[in-house]
Amino acid sequence: MKMTNELKTGMVVVAAIVVAVIFWVKTTDFSARPYKLKTYFNYAEGVKVDSIVKLSGIEVGRVEKIKFNYEPETRVELILTLNKKAKLREDSIAFISTSGLIGDAYIGITAGSPDKPFVKEGATLISEDPVEMRKLMKKAEGIAENLDKTLVEVKGLAQNLTGVVKDNRQRVDNIAVNLEQTAVNFKEFSEDIKKHPWKLLMKGKEK
Hints:
Elements: H1 5-27, E1 35-41, E2 52-55, E3 58-69, E4 75-82, E5 93-98, E6 105-109, E7 124-128, H2 133-159, H3 169-195, H4 198-206
Parallel strand pairs: 1-7, 2-6, 5-7
Antiparallel strand pairs: 1-4, 2-3, 3-4, 5-6
Helix pairs in contact: 2-3
């Protein structure tokens, strides 16, 4: 039986496909398929679907899904898809950070302790909420107000000193001056941070 050109061509194509499949099976690491974990945050500003996930600073996955969980309190639930080769420990901690000063938010994960077992697919990672700038500014304002009140009290004490404690008058005056300067410096710092919040990130990186 004589083979037609069409049949010969077909056999060559089939053989090429078989070789390609065999090569793909041998070179593909099926054990490295992605796996999923989840974590929760009370506050997750800047995080979005497809945000990068980093383990010890190296990209190992992406945020696959974001949703709210209302029990027992309102929290943001993140589903993370990670490379199978990226192994996390049971005490690894998920946190939110940014790339550079004004870069996109990403999920960072600490390596964890070497004596802890690796987490399995579907596990929930411990999380650490980022500092909310709103709360930080509120605390700064409260500290500034307390400094003002303390300054008023010290000045009042200095004015009411009698001759019996005359020797301490200068010391109290010095305390008042120092408190006043501290209050001014703190207010200037607070206002500067409100206008340029990225400076807090710079201070954190310097440490």
